[in-house]
Amino acid sequence: xxxxxxxxxxxxxxxxxxxxxxxxxxxxxxxxxxxxxxxxxxxxxxxxxxxxxxxxxxxxxxxxxxxxxxxxxxxxxxxxxxxxxxxxxxxxxxxxxxxxxxxxxxxxxxxxxxxxxxxxxxxxxxxxxxxxxxxxxxxxxxxxxxxxxxxxxxxxxxxxxxxxxxxxxxxxxxxxxxxxxxxxxxxxxxxxxxxxxxxxxxxxxxxxxxxxxxxxxxxxxxxxxxxxxxxxxxxxxxxxxxxxxxxxxxxxxxxxxxxxxxxxxxxxxxxxxxxxxxxxxxxxxxxxxxxxxxxxxxxxxxxxxxxxxxxxxxxxxxxxxxxxxxxxxxxxxxxxxxxxxxxxxxxxxxxxxxxxxxxxxxxxxxxxxxxxxxxxxx
Length: 378
Ligand SMILES: Cc1ncc(COP(=O)(O)O)c(C=O)c1O
Fold this sequence. Notes:
The protein has helices at residues 14-26, 33-46, 57-67, 84-92, 112-118, 138-148, 199-209, 217-221, 241-275, 305-314, 343-349, 363-377; strands at residues 50-54, 75-79, 96-100, 123-129, 151-155, 163-164, 167-168, 175-179, 192-196, 295-298, 352-355. It is α/β, with parallel strands linked by helices.
């Protein structure tokens, strides 16, 4: 469908094109020097010791779960209001996701109090997700993790460039996972990164990313090794030089793009509070700096969300839902949920709508979207 205003959009220019062309000219495509540069720059930008580029954000999450030694019998506390990949990655290891509620209708990230209530003797880890780029309460969550000896994995797919207390999101826990899927703040089409400050976790990530092998094709091409051993049941979660070349350029544009996303978010907030005060725009006065990955709104109680979205569509404006909560999916119906465990999630998940947000959206288009929102509410 040719949307007048799509939900998200990307803009590549000559910089991306020539970076990719350079890789093609070099004759070396799989992980090599460009990927190493990308990892080095990404680690430096985030202020973290190790970064490993992988083929998508789900692979990053899966590697993080294995490197942090999750397995059958372990419970991992995770919000239900996230993309299904968060919980799937836990399940790939045989561990069980335990779904925690979000904080409030203004604060859609996981509640530390809800996490605390769900800790049992089987809990091994907490996986947080920084919804829309807004920070979970990492100081409090790290305190809880320390008190109960739990690992922390950050799903920072929405949060590249976000921070709280001057520290980048994705660098607080034992491992942080990013996605460079095509709708993300920096994109390589498909792609991801897993970061850690822990040398032992880093060694696991390095080995597991490529079949558990002790050397890479790149090492052998450089004459650094002749053969290899296989020391773990690893995966092929490697990236390649084309994706890494795109990633390097996109990382260079990230600050500027995130800053434009923040400007547009403020513009939306101002217009919506004037024109449609019955709509709640969450994350008012949220601490830290957000990458403003998406722009969620909460419709008034009793609204017909599908009709609202159809109405927006008839104006050529694409909207979305973030997210259908995971505990409602058929494949997750075996996970036990107590009656009051996900009260806020269940309420919000029926009323949330995501409006278009991307750096090339114009101020005038934001006006058009908010006018369409006002009309669709009538
Ligand atoms: C919150 C969240 N977690 C995980 C992922 C998975 O990333 P990918 O699509 O790169 O595998 C995404 C991306 O869609 C996401 O939004």
